[in-house]
Amino acid sequence: MALATHVTDRFGTNSDFLRGLTNQDDDDASTVNTTRLGKAATAAEGQFVIHAQKAYDDTDQAHIEAGVVGVIAYLRLWSSKQGSSEGALSDFRDTLAALAKTDTRKRIQPKKADPVEDADDDDLFAGLSPKTPKVGEST
């Protein structure tokens, strides 16, 4: 499902709020301007790469929630009549930065069941420890 669709699912296709944000030049509009909504969704998705350091993922609930906020922030910025536009965009970017920090906490899982028990010291320290002569061997 596209980000613009998530926005209309949250606010409704006949929402006065969305209608006002997407039709800032037409106070008598009766529908949401889907072209402007789509452009705002594209702009919000583009910010993910810059501030969250990863592409927007439509299957990740955290991405969807942040993306909806971003779409509204862009619509507010472009309409400049529905609240603080610069603050909303700044908050969206802060959310993406926090999302980047959260995603980097994911850890790589070991391939072996017990990495300590299965570890071969020669493999772990290859190239790190100096070669020592064997007993009876001269240097």
Report what the structure shows.
It is a single chain. This protein is mainly α. The chain has one domain. The protein has 7 helices and no strands. Helix 1 packs across helix 4 (61-79), helix 3 (34-52) crosses helix 4 (61-79) and helix 3 (34-52) crosses helix 5 (85-103). The longest helix is centred in the N-terminal third of the chain and has 19 residues, at 34-52. The chain is rod-shaped. The mean pLDDT is 80.
Number of domains: 1
Average residue pLDDT: 80
Number of helices: 7
Annotation, overall tally of beta strands: 0
Helix/strand class: mainly alpha
Radius of gyration: 26 Å
Quick synopsis:
By secondary structure, this protein is mainly alpha-helical. It is built from seven helices and no strands.
Q: Any chance you could write out the topology, listing elements then pairs?
A:
Layout: H1 3-11, H2 16-22, H3 34-52, H4 61-79, H5 85-103, H6 115-118, H7 121-124
Helix pairs in contact: 1-4, 3-4, 3-5, 4-5
List keywords for this structure.
7 helices; mainly alpha; 139 residues; single chain; 58% helix
